[in-house]
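User: Second chain of the day. Same drill as before.
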Amino acid sequence: MADENNAYSFTTAATQQVTLRPGSAGFKMWRGESLPEVTLAYESWGELSPAADNAIIIFTGLSPSAHAASSTKDSSPGWWEYMIGPGKAIDTDRFFVVCANSLGGCYGSTGPISINPASGKRYGADFPDVTVEDIAQSGYLLMRELGVRKLHAAVGSSMGGMSSIAYAMQYPGEIDYLISISAAISALPLTIALRSLQREIIRSDPAWNEGQYDDDNKPLSGMSLARKLGLVSYRAADEWNSKFDRARLPAEKLTGKRFEHEFEIENYLEYNAQKFINSFDPNSYLYLSRAMDWFDVAEHGDSLKSGMAKVDVRRALVVGVTTDILFPSRQQREIAELMRSTGTDVNYVEIDSANGHDAFLIDDEHFSPVVKKFLDESN
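Assistant: Same format as last time:
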């Protein structure tokens, strides 16, 4: 059940919502709990073909909304504007493209800020555990609701890449092409540690109140610190060096207080953290970051190989970035090699970008040609 007073409702004129009611048992979740129903906010571009064989689903990373690209309904740029549109790599003149806000998110889809029908209040930390598999299942149900029985492609970056792989494992033979960018088949100890620290920082803010906070007293201090830690890990060290070096703030911006922000890099982190904390729900951050830690292809079999063997696609594209410390290129090679070992035709591309994990969001020059070539060759 959606909350009409959702303080984070980043929806646009192009955003639509659909309520999924899988059956009398409700939406059964991977870790055993259930929801009576699930609402997904989504946007779409292009037209579904008469044969319903040209659909592409875009799975998002942890924090994006469904607004991946502009459209005639909303001209504001989306978070993957360079990638999606007429004549672009994901060509909306050719494909029917759908992007949903993830289950557990806060931009119109069912999540911790939704109303719990049992209490009449927001779920908060009483929301059921969310996994990548649940996100994949909700995407599957959404596409069926839209009249799609088999996807031309599932595309995702970061957590979205995990969701695309999960979709392929959970629904073998129901995707023709798979694109996984800067993802993982299981989280590394480093990334688990970083996300664990972020969650601990948020929960240590007294305003978190065991997840039962209201819009007037949110754990903004904890969210700010958690976001700053995340920002540091999203980019590469060389990029920080070239962008800021040891540049200092101008004297007129300093107050003389001890330990105040003095360097440009500190100011950058503060600015971006403040921009984020009022647009994303802290509980959603906790739930979705935990989902990434939990994801493990081996849980779909008795090993990574047997889990990945469930993937049945015509061809896959796996993309890594040399400077990504969160999802390093060796993880992407592991995904590609594991897919090959189970019989999948895989194209692996390693991109030398200075932008670290966030490269897929901003490095049009390197990413667009790779994705375009792969999809142009799909038929």
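Residues 189-204 form the longest helix (16 residues).

User: Great, on to the next one.
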